[in-house]
Structure of Mycofactocin-coupled SDR family oxidoreductase:
Amino acid sequence: MSDELEGKVAFITGAARGQGRAHAVKLASMGADIVAVDIAGPVADFLPYPAATPDDLVETVRLVEELDRRILGVEADVRDRDALKGAADRAVAELGSLDIVVANAGICEPAKWQDISQQSWQDTIDINLTGVWNTITATAQHLIDGGRGGAIVITSSYAGKKVQPMMIHYTASKHALVGLTRGFAIELGPHNIRVNSVHPGAVATPMGGGDTVDQIEASTRENPKVNQMGQAFLEPGWMEPEAIANAVAFLVSPASATITSEHLSVDQGMQYF
Ligand SMILES: NC(=O)c1ccc[n+]([C@@H]2O[C@H](COP(=O)([O-])OP(=O)(O)OC[C@H]3O[C@@H](n4cnc5c(N)ncnc54)[C@H](O)[C@@H]3O)[C@@H](O)[C@H]2O)c1
């Protein structure tokens, strides 16, 4: 526990479980109050892993309250900008400010290009890219109005720097987030609002559960040499969500006060293999 983020409010999407929940708990442990946004329900039937549930979001709320921090749990879809705007307005009214945004919600479908449906392409772009645009445009004015700077972290991926084989839609959406990070960093810089991206490697979250691994194996069967890509230098080659939360904590803390428009890999070296 520390008090580095005492008096700050952090708006986190995809916070019902996985990395988003880890970010909520980590930032709360540093003193921040939290707005935890998640669809908390089915997103798309082409996804090979189970959807988050309202109970998952309730558990995030419980974990943050256990740390004696305030939290608003909000069921909202990042494709719905008005809902995000409503959550941001409510956060300022009830918690006093908005200082930190972590645009983390995302989906991932392993598939060969011929098997990516038009719906899957559209949903992946709408959630992973436009959802981040919605999250920042719904919140940034509150950070500006607060007049004390702020920090925004965008969750991209290893697939936003290199390529995730057999996930062209996912890879395209995560690469686009690099441009989004740079653009917002320029325009929000005069307000001392920093904008950076994190690029996780393999993280043990429900996204990798269900049939995801089988679907990755099936999609690379005709071209197995791509499985040699993205090997981690470190053991065991995958990470707990808290590893990414530590990087997010750094990027929103005073320790990174001069860092903006940076793209921080937390991938055990995967991007270089
Ligand atoms: N797990 C990995 O190996 C990995 C690696 C690199 C990057 N990422 C990225 O990290 C982020 C977090 O993923 P995770 O691993 O915690 O997966 P996860 O599936 O456990 O969590 C994602 C959360 O986002 C929510 N979400 C999905 N679509 C939403 C929408 N339209 N509106 C609101 N909420 C929505 C889900 O309900 C879920 O709670 C994603 O952007 C993902 O692409 C994951």
User: Anything to note?
Assistant: The chain is about 40% helix and 15% strand. Residues 1 and 29 are 5 Å apart (CA to CA).
